Amino acid sequence: MKKFENIAIIGGTGFIGSKLAFKLSKNTKKIIIFTRNKEKNKNLHILPNAKIIEVDINDEVSLKLNLENIDIVVNCVGILNEGYGLNSFKTLHYDLIEKISRVCRLNNIERFLHISSLNADLNAPSDYLQTKGMAEKYLLGTTSQYTNVTIFRPSVVFGENDSFFNRFAKILKYIPIFPLACPQAKFSPVYVDDLVDLIISSIYDSEKYNSKIDVTGPKNYTFQQIIKFTCNSLGIKRLIIPLNDTFSKIQAYIFDKLPGKLFTIDNYKSLQVDSISEQGYKGNISIEDIVPMYLKKDMSPKYLNKKNKLGKK
């Protein structure tokens, strides 16, 4: 494998970014990991060629300074639920892309890899998908004029530290009845290692320059199937009540007002479009292969052996 030069991962202490950093470290001269919280994911501190720095990613001057002498930038920043001010969808999904792009031009950065989302589109039903679509349009229409861009559009990404299966598992452990909004919405979950391996293999692949790639897993599931699978993985029985569209929308309006933002109106709108694709890249690992083991926190030799094999792909 060709040895990579200097790489910066923005949002590198998150679920996908940290996995990417660990895999890249074996064949990279230097990795700079941008984060808003240096204490997050302390395991990254053991990487000998990695430098973790706290950066205000909304400060373009700071971005330019910290991206000097960088050859490759990977953006892993994204939020599912919108906050206020600098934590809005537009700020983190689109404005940040404009800033990174300008820095790429000024610093002569030759490669920009960006993690977007399946169904990102200017005309999508949700603000989340619209702002992701705005970023994709800018990257392919403007940034690609001076930097080689590749956009990865995954469906739900799963893995040991994911915020999808783990989040629902935590809820299902404590409630006997689960009213499920949008039960027929479809997903094609992709294993985090499959996504990360694709990103790494694309770095110097000129056929993937200035393109976007749908990234899905080997199987499609309805939301209801995923919740039932999560219960089975935990070895628990729960009464799952599928809600029709009207009650799904009512649940979204109520939950949107509660702390924690378990389910928002924008989430409801995103679920109106199935997160599946017949195009692009399909991973090899299904949820059945590994999710039950990490949900149970089974650290048996059998689990650890399988985890290590998957990690070496």
Poorly predicted regions: none
CATH superfamily of the largest domain: NAD(P)-binding Rossmann-like Domain
CATH architecture of the largest domain: 3-Layer(aba) Sandwich
CATH C-level class of the largest domain: Alpha Beta
Helix content, binned percent: 25-40%
Number of distinct beta strands: 14
H/E series, N to C?
EHEEHEHEHEEHEEEHEEHEHHEHH
Q: Enter the CATH topology name of the largest domain.
A: Rossmann fold
Question: What is the molecular shape?
Answer: globular
Spatial strand sequence of the major β-sheet? 3-2-1-4-5-6-11-14
Account of the protein in words:
The chain has 11 helices and 14 strands. With 313 residues, the protein is of the alpha/beta class. The protein has 2 domains: 184 residues, Rossmann fold; 114 residues. It has an 8-stranded parallel β-sheet with strand order 3-2-1-4-5-6-11-14, with helices on both faces. Strand 1, helix 1 and strand 2 form a beta-alpha-beta unit. The radius of gyration is 19 Å and the shape is globular.
